[in-house]
Amino acid sequence: MSKHQDVEVLLAQLQRELERNGHWQVASPSVEALASTEPFAIDTLTCTEWLQWIFIPKMQFFIEHMHPLPVSFSISPYVEEALQGAQGHEAITRVSIDIDALFSLSSQ
């Protein structure tokens, strides 16, 4: 399986966990909230909003257009901290760790 396909599988798992645990939203945040320039849009979005409305769509865009994927990044520390005590914390964090691991393996 290609790295693009691996990422696609993990993004689908992430979406399923967000949905299963009641974090998937029907209505998009405001344009202003989505335009944040802060890391993880921490000033305008919750962690799950950032995952749903920024991270997943951006990664899906890379996959659909076969653009080069980022070399390395780490989202799991933020996800783990931001979702502490939230419904599905462990499952969502586990998928984010798997995503980080995929990208850290490719940078070696």
Automatic annotation (TrEMBL):
InterPro entries: UCP006257 (IPR007384), YqcC-like_dom (IPR023376), YqcC-like_sf (IPR036814). Transmembrane segments: none annotated. It comes from Enterovibrio norvegicus FF-454. PANTHER family: CYTOPLASMIC PROTEIN, CYTOPLASMIC PROTEIN-RELATED. It holds the Pfam family DUF446. This is Pseudouridine synthase. Residues 7-102 form the YqcC-like domain. One of its GO terms (biological process) is single-species biofilm formation.
